[in-house]
Design goal:
The protein has 331 residues and is α/β, with parallel strands linked by helices. The chain has a single domain (25-328), classed as Metallo-dependent phosphatases (Purple Acid Phosphatase, chain A, domain 2, 4-Layer Sandwich). The protein is 27% helix and 22% strand. It has helices spanning 3-21, 52-65, 82-94, 115-123, 181-198, 214-219, 243-250, 325-328, and strands at 26-27, 33-39, 69-73, 100-103, 143-148, 155-161, 204-207, 253-258, 267-270, 273-277, 293-300, 306-312, 317-323. α2 (52-65) runs parallel beside α3 (82-94). It is globular and about 50 Å long.
């Protein structure tokens, strides 16, 4: 190894350790906004040229939107070499100094790397906010991110990141996975902790991969019609363990954001919660006819409200929504 290469490697390792040693604080901007970009279903295969479209779109969206946080909502790397795929996907955030969170989809652990191994890999990366497995709770990637106020160190909003699992593990029941009861209880416990700590309910969003069964009901809400497209049936689990009901009971979650169904990108309204799809981010390594892009979400400090839109890689901005105003205008 020559001296220049040795120095470069040492510098990279040193900087990585410094970033990891620093506490990453998410905080509202001075204008009391906080911008999130959601990438979903990139289906990256690092050595497949068809993945270049996903990388190009992610880079373009990050440069256009300059978010405070990126959330990868599953099925991001779905081909070998897995580690290389994740390094390439997250490097887009790391080189721009953008923190990122990860939740897993049903395909992420199908190429010889388990959820446990993926968690270990990603938690070591600079700017990663993915947290280790919670003892006694199913899934990898159940954690809460706190967003600080622009004016103080107090929390002003919450982001729940959760593992919606992969496939049914119950004999006689086919289809996709669901939240286990211990995950529902974990969410309720975390919500209660935050309410007790702050003496009030903080506005929150939730990110996971597989849509809840209530997405089907929400899309059919004629009183508050959805905004966006639905070109395939919602591939929700056949078992409903009550995560949506828990969110209604806790009262903090304003919106849920998923992927999984590549040709759906709608936001629907049900009992005060926005049940939302991200925009398919992948290239031609999987199915999908929609131009690839990302969902953008902008929180507003002190308000149970947010703005959202779809941003394409070519710069186009689609489907702008003000939540909840755009769903309540007809009431």
């Amino acid at each position: 190894m020559n001296k220049r290469l040795s120095f470069t490697l040492l510098f990279f390792l040193t900087m990585t350790n410094l970033i990891q040693a620093q506490e990453i604080n998410l905080k509202f901007r001075a204008d009391q906004s906080f911008k999130i970009v959601q990438f979903t279903d990139a289906h990256i295969k690092a050595n497949d040229p068809a993945s270049k479209a996903a990388f190009a779109t992610m880079a373009a969206v990050l440069d256009l939107e300059q978010p405070d946080l990126v959330v990868y909502t599953g099925d991001i790397v779905t081909g070998k070499p897995v580690e290389k795929g994740w390094n390439l996907a997250t490097a887009l955030c790391i080189e721009r100094d953008i923190p990122f969170a990860v939740v897993f989809g049903n395909h992420d652990d199908e190429d010889g790397v388990s959820r446990a191994q993926l968690t270990e890999l990603i938690t070591r990366m600079p700017y990663s906010l993915l947290q280790p497995k919670v003892d006694g709770v199913n899934g990898y990637g159940n954690y809460v991110l706190e967003i600080k106020s622009a004016k103080s160190d107090g929390n002003a909003a919450l982001l729940y990141c959760m593992d919606s699992n992969a496939y049914s593990t119950m004999e006689g029941i086919e289809g996709y996975g669901w939240f286990h009861i211990d995950q529902v209880n974990w969410y309720l416990e975390q919500s209660q902790i935050q309410q007790q700590r702050h003496g009030k309910i903080l506005p929150a969003l939730a990110f996971f991969h597989i849509p809840l069964p209530e997405y089907r009901q929400a899309y059919g809400n004629e009183k508050n019609p959805p905004i966006g497209v639905r070109f395939e049936d919602e591939c929700a689990p056949e078992i409903n363990t009550g995560m949506y009901a828990a969110m209604l009971h806790a009262g903090d979650v304003m919106g849920t954001f998923v992927g999984h169904d590549h040709v759906n990108d709608y936001m629907a309204y049900l009992n005060g919660i926005a049940l939302t799809y991200g925009r398919f981010t992948g290239g031609k390594t999987t199915y999908g006819d929609l131009p690839n892009g990302a969902r953008v979400i902008v929180l507003k400090e002190g308000k149970r409200a947010f703005s959202s839109w779809i941003r394409l890689g070519n710069g186009d901005k689609l489907l702008p929504v003000e939540f909840p105003a755009d769903f309540l205008s007809e009431e």
